[in-house]
Amino acid sequence: MDDVLRLIDSIYEAAGRPDHWQAALTQLADATGSIDATMGGQTSAQVPMLISARTDPDYVRSYAEYYHARNPMQMAVFGQPVGKVVLDHMVMNKGAFESSDFFNEWCKPQGYLAGGALNLAADGGWRATVMVSGRNDYDQERYQLLERVAPHLRRAFELNQILHQTRALGVGAMAALEYVDRGVLVVNRSRLASTANAMAERILGIGDGLRLKGGQLTCDRPDESKTLERALASCERGTADSSGTTITITRSAGRSPLSLMCIPFPATAWWPGFDQQVALIFITDRDTRLEQRSQRLRARFGLTPAEAALAWEIAKSGGRQEAAESRGVSLSTARTQLSSIFDKTGVRRQAELVRLLLDTLDEPD
């Protein structure tokens, strides 16, 4: 009894840790008096995945590359219902099986003279199957053991699939967020950030106006921290609507303020007191966005860094004098740079330049 419980524990450990399947299959082989236990994902024509407890890797490779399509027993098992434990003599004539090349060339040299199987899942022409193989026919006691652990094997495999899909969706979502021109954070009710894209990490790393202190999202100004706390509390209570709450974060002189949009994170009732995520925060850094567009402008028109910076300052301030002062250059230098910008972009007036820059802003990154 204890051995069976330990086997079931091992199976469920593999549910959360797929790299544990080999250990679980080894325990399954031992518990059923088998030489080997194998899990395979396959179609009728090929084996895209095979995990074996003890089979020699060369035999595993030859099975996947050649013998799977020539295994009449596997083809018979392939047609069985999901969840049903079958033994070899239940699905085909053993005499016919023992006359096959697969049995004589692959099974017999390894001592795999009898076996049982269980289809774990089926979808769109493929099946996941667990197979046990040994020297002796499986008696009623060993068959009942297989039947007893069969539901646990199925559930563990289903959990593997769910976890894989969930992780893939999460990874895909975060990978997509790396392509947006805003910082993105996921925070919990304590303002602890659990996930951030590269731009958010860069903004927080500068630590001007907004920073992480002990992993907690904090504003430099206490009044803005209080505003952030209220926005997160609204997200947690569900009183913030899906369009989000926008907060302006002051930064040091000469830098544009940050704009934070706090959007309620989808609520999940998992366990009382569980510290779940409450908000998705989008951080807009106008200066960083302008820098990115500046780089694109340089690449498109061959502007120098100084020319691109001046062009954006003109767009921001609306005048050459203000742009020159902001850039810390003389008015004559600004005139020279602006003349070069006109030549390279093909425009002739500042208003046309601003329209060109706005068009550039509308282009996808």
Please identify the structural class as seen in this structure: alpha+beta
Q: Which overall shape is indicated by the principal axes computed on the Cα atoms?
A: elongated
Radius of gyration: 32 Å
Per CATH, the superfamily of the largest domain is Transcription factor LuxR-like, autoinducer-binding domain
What is the name of the CATH topology of the largest domain?
Answer: Beta-Lactamase
Number of strands: 12
Strand order of the largest sheet: 2-1-5-4-3
CA distance, first residue to last residue: 62 Å
Order of helices and strands: HHEEHHEHHHEEHEEHEEHEEEHHHHH
What is the helix tally? 15
Q: Residue ranges: pLDDT <50 for 5 or more in a row?
A: 269-274
CATH class of the largest domain: Alpha Beta
Taking all residues together, what is the mean pLDDT?
85
CATH architecture of the largest domain: 2-Layer Sandwich
The biggest sheet amounts to: 5 strands, antiparallel
Number of spatially distinct domains: 3
Estimate the helix proportion, in percent: 40-55%
